[in-house]
Amino acid sequence: MASSRTLLLALAALAPATNAQNFGGSGRAADDFTYVQPLNTTILGGYGHSPAVYPSPNMTGTGGWKDAMAKAQEFVSQLTPEEKAWMVTGAAGPCVGNIKPIPRLGFNGICLQDGPLSIRVADYASVFSAGVSAAASWDRKVLYERGFAMGEEFKAKGAQVALSPVCGPLGRSAYSGRNWEGFAADPYLTGVAMEVTIKGHQDAGVQATPKHFIGNEQETQRNPTLDESGTNVIQEAISANIDDRTMHELYLWPFANSVRANAASIMCSYQRLNGSYGCENSKALNGLLKGELGFQGYVMSDWGAVHSGVPSIESGLDMNMPGGLGAYGMDPTLGSYFGGNVTTAVNNGTLQESRLDDMIVRIMTPYYHLGQDKDFPTTDASSGVLNTFFKKKDWKPEEWNMTGESSRDVRGNHGDLIRKHGAEATVLLKNVNKALPLKAPKSIAVFGNDAGDITEGFLNQKSYEYGTLAAGGGSGTGRFTYLITPLEAVKARARKDAVVEQHPDRLEQHDRPLEPHSPEVCLVFLKTWAEEATDRKHLSVDYDGEEVVASVAKFCNNTVVVTHSSGINLLPFADHPNVTAILAAHYPGQESGNSIVDILYGDVNPSGKLPYTIAFNGTDYNAPPTTAVNTTGIDDWQSWFDEKLEIDYRYFDAHNISVRYEFGFGLSYTTFELAELKAEALAQDIPAAPAAEPVQPGGNPALWAPLYNVTVEVSNTGDADGATVPQLYVHFPDSTPAGTPPQQLRGFDKVLLKKGDKTTVSFELMRRDISYWDIVSQGWVIPAGEFTLSAGLSSRDFRATAKITPVKA
Ligand SMILES: *[C@@H]1O[C@H](CO)[C@@H](O)[C@H](O)[C@H]1NC(C)=O
Ligand SMILES: *[C@@H]1O[C@H](CO)[C@@H](O)[C@H](O)[C@H]1NC(C)=O
Ligand SMILES: *[C@@H]1O[C@H](CO)[C@@H](O)[C@H](O)[C@H]1NC(C)=O
Ligand SMILES: *[C@@H]1O[C@H](CO)[C@@H](O)[C@H](O)[C@H]1NC(C)=O
Ligand SMILES: *[C@@H]1O[C@H](CO)[C@@H](O)[C@H](O)[C@H]1NC(C)=O
Ligand SMILES: *[C@@H]1O[C@H](CO)[C@@H](O)[C@H](O)[C@H]1NC(C)=O
Ligand SMILES: *[C@@H]1O[C@H](CO)[C@@H](O)[C@H](O)[C@H]1NC(C)=O
Ligand SMILES: *[C@@H]1O[C@H](CO)[C@@H](O)[C@H](O)[C@H]1NC(C)=O
Ligand SMILES: *[C@@H]1O[C@H](CO)[C@@H](O)[C@H](O)[C@H]1NC(C)=O
Ligand SMILES: *[C@@H]1O[C@H](CO)[C@@H](O)[C@H](O)[C@H]1NC(C)=O
Ligand SMILES: *[C@@H]1O[C@H](CO)[C@@H](O)[C@H](O)[C@H]1NC(C)=O
Ligand SMILES: *[C@@H]1O[C@H](CO)[C@@H](O)[C@H](O)[C@H]1NC(C)=O
After folding, report:
1. Sequence-ordered list of residues with C-beta below 8 angstroms from that of 632, at least 6 positions apart, any chain
2. Which of 115, 215, 93 is closest to 163 using CA atoms?
3. Is the CB–ligand 5 distance for residue 762 below 6 Å?
4. Is residue 354 in contact with ligand 1, taking CB distance under 6 Å?
5. Closest residue (by CA) to atom 2 of ligand 5?
6. DSSP 574
7. Residues paired with residue 320 on neighbouring β-strands, in sequence order
8. Which of 182, 231, 464, 724 is the most exposed place for a label (fewest CB within 10 A)?
9. What is d(CA 425, CA 326) in angstroms, rounded to the nearest whole number?
10. Ligand 11, atom nearest to 655 Cα
11. What is the rounded distance in angstroms from the CA atom of residue 358 to the CA atom of residue 193?
């Protein structure tokens, strides 16, 4: 037994476990070969097996990285074997992830910090709007400004790497606990948001880390279940089984934008993909990411997502975070799959040193490219104090260069931006009887447990009953230095005109008329929590919010409801005649109260649009998370993405299902009209398949070539100045393979127009925008025949159409 185990180990080490072996087992380390079972096609149900793609492509420096790459290569040439191992392995230290300094080479190390809306482990830093809010702005300028300002704060705190932004989850399931960290349930809008946010972060000098690659569409069973010893796997993590076309047209799409934006790093995900763990899936990392998309940066693991050494490295993983073993990889005293094992593997010939060198060159190229070798601020010592990721005994502060000023205030004037961004992202869903904007009401009553002060200190780290919500929980949250509540902002704004009656609670005795007379307006603030590591149980507002609205609306015929929510809420009270207005404000960040008051009083005309669909019933949504797997087989957690492209509006539209508020919907205090949709061809004799040009970051550059310039006239036809978002949807011709959604977003732009004004907006349709992924040729193909283009003010409100025939039938 012992000798056969040794033999298997040696074989596995020499020829790293292929993904084919991994499926049906675990895709785990060679030393966990016990779990490697033969491929069982019955379980696979026809698809779901991850092909082996080796070797891991070397970085080439294409796409503008060559100068920095030369510096990185020079750096690598000076490293000892041990230093090389530590360059790819996280260590305990002051940040949530740390690469050790090498003082000998003047290298201060690399500090990696959460997260997608704030530098989380920090004092005197801002909490920006969450991804879902930023996406609801549908505004490239807001997205860029936010990305840039966040980047400035990470840099000023001495963090070279921001673990941001998020496009996985994309929003396959309405219930996923992390949808709010990402942007929209649509790859196009999310792709633009990723690209612009990454440019913002990196223009500010900080490395962006798009995450989580890929298929991380639910939280339930995202990690394996271990036995009591914490080492043996009882059940493997969920496997997201995704067919090739769906992968390309939905989940990979925004990562392609991210790579094209020259993202420094990409974080691989916890769960399995076609049976093989996200951080050792060679098809995903070597094949899709480094091969097809030409990714030049480094693949970093999610925290504790590494389950093997050499097999992960051969599959394309470049950096193990946070480096150690134990739960979430946070115990360096237990050793590491990387670290010393990497040195051993090179020494015993299992791992080619050139692969290790490529890993470090990939890690150091962005560092030089962004000038992080010059005058980069040292890590703020306060981060080390606040960091609970590592036990203080496991690292020595004197080994890290934290010589700068401690507790630096890096917020600048970002509060003003956050206030503006929050207002611009607020979605007005209902507005009857001219309820909004408020016209200096003389009496206001404020209700709801989301109205008042927070009661759990600096963090929105857990769901709690009393206090407003401006962020969700987990690694994607922020640490508030202050949080303007709706109640305080309403009181401040109303002071000169109005009486404000306060009920910032949950369900009180609201079944009586207010004395001495009814308030002119009743503002009800409701909240909905979501956090990493669990999925949402329902799509209602939390804490009996629907009952709160009902009890207020019973006596108040001008009830205005505001939700602070992670995303989708069903909003049954939208039918109530006394509910005159509804605003979805999502998670706006630290200026929450000011942002909503700017909207309520009309200082800012609402222009946010839904980045997802609100259905009538939770059961209307397809693709719920896979939960309640009651069987105990090691491999029983399987999530078949067999809805394919039919998520969110793509599904509702394909089946003509009525919804309450569709994707892209949002009202304004004025009205708009669209006319004269025109498409001008920018190329002649367009071939169905792109020319095979050398791969650049983002893939074949021909996919990004603009083929049509589409223009539409937008006019403000109402009586207020305001902004709106003309949206372009593409309907593919009948020759496209079955399963193509009836309409897909392929352009948008936010425009501000004075009342009575008119302008022309243009959208560039790129080759990828009018192609489908052809599984036979393994490439993007423009289908033959006539496309219809629709310009609308939502995904179900088209105002103008045009036809194009790029490729004749
Ligand atoms: C494959 O899986 C199916 C379903 O779990 C099982 O019935 C069958 O026995 C398995 N086949 C093999 C060869 O293990
Ligand atoms: C997943 O399985 C499908 C069907 O076999 C295959 O087309 C696709 O390439 C696989 N993807 C990955 C990442 O393994
Ligand atoms: C990467 O480059 C090294 C030389 O530095 C070479 O030996 C190796 O074969 C290359 N790997 C690939 C996958 O091209
Ligand atoms: C090497 O990896 C094993 C797990 O496979 C671990 O137990 C051991 O501690 C690691 N060695 C080092 C030096 O980190
Ligand atoms: C080489 O080292 C690696 C990492 O410690 C180990 O997993 C592997 O078993 C070793 N292989 C041989 C042939 O000694
Ligand atoms: C710490 O970093 C600063 C700024 O890069 C540098 O000037 C200083 O020499 C470093 N100190 C040590 C002890 O490495
Ligand atoms: C609406 O509010 C008025 C009080 O202004 C109340 O009389 C009426 O019953 C309410 N309507 C509903 C449907 O609750
Ligand atoms: C709402 O209620 C107020 C006071 O109760 C009343 O004056 C007003 O006419 C009502 N409005 C509507 C539209 O019913
Ligand atoms: C939602 O749908 C389910 C199943 O179709 C049904 O039982 C339930 O009553 C519906 N809920 C609402 C509020 O319509
Ligand atoms: C698991 O058990 C629960 C409770 O008995 C049941 O509701 C659920 O349908 C079961 N799940 C599956 C996949 O059989
Ligand atoms: C949806 O409605 C359209 C237009 O009314 C119709 O052409 C189409 O066949 C319907 N699709 C389904 C799945 O019912
Ligand atoms: C598209 O059309 C607009 C409006 O005519 C024009 O301003 C823009 O330059 C055009 N873009 C391209 C790429 O031709």
Report:
1. 234, 235
2. 115
3. no
4. no
5. 345
6. G
7. 89
8. 231
9. 41
10. 13
11. 30
Which is it for strands 579-584 and 427-431: parallel, antiparallel or unpaired?
antiparallel
- Token pair recorded at residue 336: 């590491």
For ligand 10, pick from 630, 636, 638, 640 the residue to mutate: most ligand atoms within 8 Å of CB. 630
What pLDDT sits at residue 327? 86
The string of pLDDT tens digits covering residues 40-77 is: 444 444 445 788 999 999 999 999 999 999 999 999 99
Per-residue pLDDT of 257-276, as tens digits, reads: 999 999 999 999 999 999 99
Q: Sorting pLDDT into bands at 50, 70 and 90, what band is 533?
A: very high
Task: Tell me the sheet residues that pair with 102.
Answer: 107
Sorted by where each starts, the structural domains of the chain and their CATH numbers stand as 67-391 (3.20.20.300), 418-604 (3.40.50.1700), 669-804 (2.60.40.10)
Side chain identity at 618, as an amino acid letter?
G
- Ligand 9: residue whose CA is nearest its atom 9: 617
Atom 5 of ligand 3, nearest CA residue = 354
**How far, in Å, is the centroid of ligand 10 from the Cα of 220?**
15
Residue 371 CA to ligand 3 centre (angstroms): 27
Among 3-17, 494-508, 730-744, the least confident range: 3-17
Q: Catalytic one among 32, 186, 302, 331?
A: 302
Q: Which of 521, 557, 578 to mutate to test the pocket of ligand 8 (most atoms within 8 A of CB)?
A: 557
Q: Starting from the CA of residue 776, give the closest ligand.
A: 2
The DSSP code sequence of 618-666 is GGG-S-----------TT--EEE-TTTT--HHHHHHHTT---SB-TT--
Residue 497 confidence (pLDDT): 81
What b-and-e string marks burial along 280-314, b requiring 16 or more CB atoms within 10 Å of the CB?
bbbbbbbbbbbbbbbbbbbbbbbbbbbbbbbbbbb
Nearest atom, ligand 1, residue 633 CA: 5
Q: Of the candidates 325, 363, 354, which has an alpha carbon nearest to the alpha carbon of residue 341?
A: 325
- CA separation for the pair 738, 248 (Å, rounded): 16
On the question of pLDDT at 22 being above 50, the answer is no
Q: Is 302 one of the annotated active-site residues of the chain?
A: yes
Do 748 and 710 touch, CB atoms closer than 8 A?
Answer: no
Amino acid 785 reads G
Sign of torsion, CA 287 293 297 301?
negative
CA 632 to centroid of ligand 1, rounded, Å? 15
Is pLDDT of 8 > 50?
no
Q: Which atom of ligand 7 is nearest to the CA of 554?
A: 14
Confidence at 688, pLDDT banded by 50, 70, 90: very high
Residue whose pair of structure tokens reads 């949080």 in the numeric block? 483
Residue nearest to atom 7 of ligand 6 (CA): 375
Give the confidence band of 505 by pLDDT, cuts at 50, 70, 90: low
